[in-house]
Amino acid sequence: NAGVTQTPKFRILKIGQSMTLQCTQDMNHNYMYWYRQDPGMGLKLIYYSVGAGITDKGEVPNGYNVSRSTTEDFPLRLELAAPSQTSVYFCASSLLAGFRETQYFGPGTRLLVL
Amino acid sequence: AQSVTQLGSHVSVSEGALVLLRCNYSSSVPPYLFWYVQYPNQGLQLLLKYTTGATLVKGINGFEAEFKKSETSFHLTKPSAHMSDAAEYFCAVSWGASKIIFGSGTRLSIRP
User: Fold this and answer.
1) pLDDT band at B97, cuts 50/70/90?
2) Do A99 and B32 touch (CB under 8 A)?
3) DSSP 8-class letter at A32
4) A13 near A7, Cβ under 8 Å?
5) Residue B98's pLDDT is what?
6) Average pLDDT, whole number, for chain A?
7) Minimal Cα–Cα distance from A5 to chain B, Å?
8) Distance between A4 CA and the closest CA of chain B, angstroms
9) Which helix (H) or strand (E) holds B44?
10) Residue A51, CA distances (Å) to A71, A110, B8 in order
């Protein structure tokens, strides 16, 4: 049982490039989330999903896109990378009842946009 | 607007001393309350949570927190700090099924 896995661990992007951050969970959780963590700022919710085919915006969705074709996978897409997207990105999942439940976090992807 | 405040971005205590990390929130709606811990280069792990019932909640690694509705607080405590407690701690508050806010975090250092 690997829990929540994220790839890559670290990536450097040039301004304007695109990339997909991968997230997979093997706990059969319905809810999945993407957060970004900036120094001294805590975590900000980017997007979340309540199940396959259903996604919704969080607090800071601009510049990102998501899809949820399966229960296990919840990739985050950056179409035109900007320096403001330099951050650490965490994927998380929970079983039921969304934000009332314990969230299980992946190890994070550190992204640097230059 | 709803908000979560963690007082003190950095707290330093001696090994064996009391740990007290503060969390306050602003809302009139009853919340769900969480404390998460983040060790270096890792994701967050749940320490404890309050949903309903007893206001004193016990978590892992000897931590506990008390929900005080009148003070809109959910402070985290541990009677005796251990070197392995050095980490960053996040308070999180959820209102309903579609919103959660994390505090900005408190880095806990333990002096030998």
Assistant:
1) low
2) yes
3) E
4) no
5) 67
6) 93
7) 10
8) 10
9) strand B44-50
10) 6, 26, 37
